Amino acid sequence: MTGPSNVKRDYPDILAGVVMVGLGALGLWAGRDLSFGTPSMMGPGFLPDVICGIIIAIGLFVFIKGLTKGHEGIGSSNVKPLLILVVAIAGFALMAEPLGFVVSTAWLLIVGSLADQESRWREILISTVILTAFGAFVFIYGLGVQMPILPF
Fold it and tell me: What's the pTM?
């Protein structure tokens, strides 16, 4: 009779694979009512289904790799940058309609850049001006996204 297995799995990869497969399956489920179509006559569900299928395939690959690879501990993590990014994205989502694209994008870029401890204010401000202007031209004027540009 053999004892318990001493094989340690790579739990971060296993967890990442499970999350990716779950997200891909959730995407397929959410778009289940969209018609797929054919490659020559794509339906509204074609691209989401293909992308979700690719996510599931990558997730399965990562999961299997995690089962066959040696153990790597998850270790400690710094939660502060993650929280800063969540606040930046949530602020953008909440401010986009009432305050407009320019203000909400500036919030997203400035607050989001605080997640990097090595960022410098001059670089942050320059990149914020350039990316906000570029985003406004592409999304608001070029693609016609229905969002106010400014709060007034």
Answer: 0.54
d(CA 47, CA 107): 31
Nearest-angstrom CA–CA distance, 152 and 138: 21
- Say if residue 95 is in the same domain as residue 50: no
Residue of 46 and 60 predicted with greater confidence: 60
Mention every residue, 6+ apart, whose C-beta is less than 8 A from residue 105: 92, 128, 131, 132, 135, 136
Handedness of CA 83, 86, 90, 92 (dihedral sign): positive
Helix-helix angle 11-30:46-68, to 10 degrees: 160
Q: Quote the number of domains for the chain.
A: 2
Same domain, yes or no, for 63 and 103?
no
Environment class of residue 148 by beta-carbon count within 10 Å: exposed (0-12), middle (13-18) or buried (19+)?
middle
Measured CA to CA, the distance from residue 91 to residue 85 in angstroms comes to 10
